[in-house]
Amino acid sequence: MESHPSHSASAGHERTGGVFFDDPLFEQFAVRSLTLDGCPLGEISTIASSIEEGDADSWFREWSAAGDRLGGYGDASAHADHAISASGSYLRAASYYRAAYAPLFGSPVDARLVEAFDKEAAAFQKAAALMPSPVEPVEIPFEGTTLPGYFCRVDDSDLPRPTLICTNGYDSTIYEMYLDFAAPALRRGYNLLLFDGPGQGRPLIRQGLKMRPDWENVVGPVVDYALTRQEVDPEKIALMGWSFGGYLAPRAASAEHRLAACIADPGLWDLLESMKASFTVLPKEVLEKFPDVDPEVLKPLEEHIRAIPALRWAVVQRAFWVHGIDSLAEYVHIAQDYSLKEAAGLIRCPTLLTLAESDPLSWNAERIHESLRCTRELVRFTNAEGAGDHCEGKARPLFHRRAFDWLDETLEVSPER
Question: What is the pTM of this model?
């Protein structure tokens, strides 16, 4: 799940009075770890208390140390044949290593980011080997290389089951997806196929593959792989995308018609329109020319973005690296390719869209809903129920309930498989 500080020019000035930090970016990163399965409040609070506000070096040092400590707990439990305790410790270690490199996200790539990512992957692999339900690392053939993934089975039988493919956004990894999706999916009898595509996780950090708009050409090979597995019911393959995956999943479903259902959390209609709505400091006549705008006109806005840590991280560090670009003008230009205007009407499978009240990515989910010609549903999440933030981050169980209940009904999946 990507963190998503608003692109608004006013963001970054207000103190959050947060649970862990006054710094809004650090608060966002810390709360993100808290929302994941198995990461306790006391542990995260203790880590946070040792970090200096806004100091990325301090942040990296303390979260990395926590990852090392939890990895040690895992090793001790594994040595004593306490598999459940060991796997839980390794999963938390993986989560803390991911948290450690969050502020470092960007290009040129910091060596510490690569180090922490490798530790995240190693800790997760140790956990996967001890899971009561099989968690198998896989390599999915893709355009002369492979994409990393995990195939998670309900049990060790070969019974064909409904299978959920999960796709990421800008800055998450397959390991973070497991922490969010595995328990609710496996408990309900769904196999889970997690993967990272171009611009995500290992393909970005280790393989140098950048984000691309034609996600149908990424998901197609993933579905090809799924269909080689006898544990997969070929008639009940669903795709779920979270965060920027709320664009990627519907885009894939517009051309990948072997999918039986699609979930977009949240529905993301058009990246360029989102930019225009956020860059309110620009004159109206400039916004009307997007994406054909003089780069010189955008330079003051880019300087403003670079001066505010939360905006710099979201745009300059993260988006520029993920897309392989160097300027705001380039970002505006490529944003026009990330649109569902032409694709939404081509989706055939039943589609669920979410709209969270305070999520800046959610604001035009209704546009997708109006454009769909398939069976569709728009589910709203509100601040009053604690679920109004990005990807319902502070109330994920509520999302799981609504999304999986819809999926059960759509795929006609019975309570016990």
Answer: 0.93
